[in-house]
Design brief:
The chain is of the alpha/beta class. It is built from ten helices and eight strands. Strand 6, helix 4 and strand 7 form a beta-alpha-beta unit. The termini are far apart. The relative contact order is 0.09. The mean pLDDT is about 90. Keywords: DNA-binding, Phosphoprotein. This is DNA-binding response regulator.
């Protein structure tokens, strides 16, 4: 099943995979998180191809919903976003693969067959960067909270939350809008698995994010 907020992507995938019908069959498609969850329940696909970003939503959240509803399904991200932090987040919530949209039909089918057989795959051009990033994380480099999937800006926002600043105060300190701070806050909540500021701060302190 394919999940993307652009119809041309769905059409392109159908055209690309048409000659591989003996190996792969697209059973459904969706353009947002709610539609994806319903389509998964309706069609029970073996694999879901999902973009990292959907219109106004996070594909990461959609992945979590899908896996909660149908744990046996394998979710594979296919996106233009080659940020290794997305890969860490995707794997942390249970994704089985992270591919880039520049794949050929043969490469995509080969990857999907391997993932269906139980492998976890990362796009080759990302794999080396992931290995280096993992080594640096293990060595204690990067910013506080990187090991939890936080971006550098999210780490800065969380540090200011811990210090007691309001969204308005954080926005003034970082010279960004309050709406931008709210966006980062939602990302922080998702990655820490919390629903409010108090719990986010408590989690950051408990995990020793800021020493």
């Amino acid at each position: 099943m394919t999940v993307d907020d652009h119809q041309m992507v769905h059409d392109g995938l159908r055209a690309m995979l048409r000659s591989y019908g003996d190996q792969v069959r697209i059973v459904g498609e969706a353009r947002d998180s709610d539609g994806a969850l319903q389509a998964v329940l309706d069609h029970e696909p073996d694999l879901v191809l999902l973009d990292v970003r959907l219109r106004g939503e996070s594909g990461l959240d959609a992945c979590a919903k899908i896996l909660r509803a149908r744990p046996s399904c394998r979710v594979v991200f296919m996106t233009v976003y080659d940020d290794e932090q997305y890969v860490y987040q995707a794997l942390r919530i249970g994704a089985s693969g992270f591919l880039l949209k520049d794949v050929t039909g043969a490469e995509l089918v080969g990857s999907l067959m391997r993932i269906a057989a139980g492998e976890v795959l990362i796009a080759p051009m990302l794999a080396g960067r992931i290995a280096l990033s993992a080594a640096r994380l293990h060595a204690g480099e990067f910013w506080p909270g990187a090991h939890l999937g936080l971006t550098q800006r999210e780490s800065e926002v969380l540090a200011l939350m811990v210090s007691g600043l309001t969204n308005k105060g954080i926005a003034a300190r970082l010279t960004v809008s309050e709406e931008t701070v709210k966006t980062h806050t939602r990302g922080i909540y998702r990655k820490l698995g919390v629903n409010d500021r108090v719990t986010a701060v408590a989690t950051a302190l408990r995990e020793g994010v800021f020493r």
